Amino acid sequence: MASPSAVGAPPKAEELQEEKKKPSGQQIDPYNVAGEVDESGNIKAIDYDRLIQEFGVQPLTEDHLKRFEQVTGKPAHRLMRRKLFFSHRDFDKILDTYEQYGTFMLYTGRGPSSGSMHLGHTVPFLFTKELQEMFDVPLVIMLTDDEKYLYTRSKNDGTQKKGAGVEDFLQFAHENIKDIIALGFDPNKTFIYTDYEFLGGHFYWNTSEFESMITLNQAQGAFGFGGSTNIGLIAYGAKQCVAAFPSSYPDLFGLPDYRAPDYNPQGMRRHKPLSKIPTLIPCAIDQEPYFRILRDRCDRMTDPHPKTCLILSKFLTALQGPGGKMSASDANSAIFMSDTASQIKNKINRHAFSGGRESLEEHRQLGGNPDVDVAYTYLSYFLESDDELAELAAKYRSGEMLTGEMKQRCIAELQKFVGAFQERRAQVDHSVMREYMRPRKLVWGGNPSPTKPAGKSGEEGKDCGEGAGDGAGGGEKRADGRGTKGERKAAKRAAQKEEKLAARPKQQAQQQKQGGEAPASSEAS
Ligand code: TYM
């Protein structure tokens, strides 16, 4: 029996060979990505239309693209135009929210299973970066070193292998964070953290509350866990879920995150107005089961959050072709962001599955199939020009273009992308990395002209009425430090006002400071 694949990875090539013996349905979840195996043992391409049905997500349509362009005033990103981001949950609602109230939070993440990310991992990050630039909104990026440690140990029957201890995954996380930074995120609007370093405070309070809403049966159902899965991994999902709540990161909105030794039970609670800010998560569809669990429980939190919105991509396929995703556990299935130009060339030339014909004559006569051709597929993710992409497909189908030529085009494009990445990556040292990881007030602009700007929706009292303040606002205190009833009321009002201001993008906050009134509220669910 082949050794099992590493963290979050699809089956290795040899495992797929074994799988050939038994027909099975396609399996997509955070820990498995594999196409259907038919009666003859052939692995089929992942059927994304079927996934839409099975997961109950919505397809991304031309109407969404038009609406996106209307709201942002910018053309849709190539990954959307080509429907590589192909489905969503409530994407239209996040657009409405942004149009009306002007802001939301972006959230995505990475499970650091190796020291270098591969090309597939860059897909959601490249897209997220574009969204951040277009919408001008805050972004949090979670590195789940804890998840990958627990998963690896579970895979290894409870044994901790050499090079797979807690500190190893923390180190992978740091290397991956440098990779992510090299993709070009704005340091003023981006907070990146690893679970081992950051979890605590309001994040952990949210986690605990969320854990109490997931039963063992539900975790087993969503993630395919069994009786021998370690309990750390079973509980882990709650953390990936509450990471979507802006209330888990008060520092980013200029509010205090009560942690020891400063916590005082007198009036200190999580900041209710932050629970009104909606979140959009860009990721591949393997992560969707987490967020299904999340969306079902958002409104049961003490401070209910709007249902989190998702925009979901297909998988950048393994070099060996459709049916699995590019995987860090099989060096030959993946192009790593640390690969040299000649490694890229060799991998594409030797391993990239071809949609060409058996012989040159046949290919010239019948033409090739770009839909299954890996070199063409990679170009569809990374080549910006729609016209050139269409021309490549047409020439390949007609037989005018050969597999070797398609591979050359792909090699040139990937070498350019990875080479430019590596130059930027070389500039990211430890102190640059730490700057992104410092909990601090982020600065963003949001929608400069929301249709329901501050003060127009009448939601204010409803949103913030019960939020106990943090005691900010000063005033003389009583001997017990709580102040008089009137002082406490005034302090509470001042704290609420501060919270609401903090939860808004900077223009709106300025508007209000200059006299306008404004609810932070925006309904996304
Ligand atoms: P991880 O490290 O497995 O994957 C990181 C991100 O990359 C996506 N992805 C891919 N996208 C396209 N093609 C591929 N071949 C491919 N392989 C992976 C994943 O969907 C993901 O978006 N548990 C998570 C980490 C995480 C996270 C999140 C991810 C924490 N919070 C929020 C997305 C959103 C993980 O292990 O991702």
Walk me through this protein's architecture.
The chain has 525 residues and is α/β, with parallel strands linked by helices. 44% of the residues lie in helices and 9% in strands. It has 22 helices and 11 strands. The strands form 3 sheets. Strands 3-4-9-8-5-6-7 form a 7-stranded mixed sheet, with helices on both faces. It has a two-stranded antiparallel sheet with strand order 1-2. Strands 10-11 form a two-stranded antiparallel sheet. The radius of gyration is 25 Å and the shape is globular. Bound molecules: tryptophanyl-5'AMP. Tryptophanyl-5'AMP (TYM) is lined by residues 8, 30, 108-111, 120-121, 123-124, 142, 144, 147, 240, 243, 281, 283-284, 286-287, 313, 315-316, 325-326. Its EC number is 6.1.1.2. Residues 1-33, 442-525 are annotated as: Disordered.
